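Practice problem: predict the structure.
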Amino acid sequence: MTPAIAMTIGGSDSSGGAGIQADLKTFTSMKVYGCSAISCVTAQNTKGVSRVDALSPEALSAQISAVLTDLPVAALKTGMLLNVGLIEATAAALAALTIPKLIDPVMVSRAGSVLLEPSAIAAYRLLLPQAELLTPNLHEAQLLSGVTIEAATDLEGAVEQAAQRLLELGSAAVLVKGGGRPELRGRDYLLQRHAPGQWLSHAPISTTHTHGSGCTLGAAITAQRALGLSLQEAVIEAKRYVEGGLRSALAIGAGHGPLCHWHAYGSVGQRRAP
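Answer:
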């Protein structure tokens, strides 16, 4: 048996709901073999992040090299890259790869935890030209694009403008995740080069247990790309997967619980491209 292989590069979540752990759970539930390179170790639970320890850029580079020189990775994603050194190391390690690369510019979690040093925001532009798909939340889209996204303005128009600006900075496609605002809950904006933008929607799900939903969405897209789906098909399937995980979210811990990754898989089913 030779399964499709996907890789995640990012931070470890000690509570298992987000980061590397959520990515690997997602890969496994979609029958994709997952491998990883860890950039940071966080002390984290459903209430938030209390400590972050970054690995050295050399340690991250060595992990990436060890995987890519041995395993035929079909698609990969990046997540938490805390500082300039880790971003630069990742950009250098991935520059020669022609496989689908999803860049999730993890800066601030939906719960408000800061996951990127301020000096590293500009460094992310090294990775944007490598992205087949960039998946910022609303706050990250605003920081990277310089476009103000506020409820007092035309919210949809601001999101669309930010996505266009991010394409101009080098990304081949952008998916701006709208779940951070009640007005856009369940709605994400996909913009690809040479194609009209699309608002992709599912029914809003009333739950506070959304920990790791952004990581899970990116991992699901990556897994589906590894399986051979087109980018648009992968995004649609991934949104269905996250919807299923939110409907069966786990009310564990004293804060925001995580998605139920195994039940989410059952709600989506398995698809392979022809």
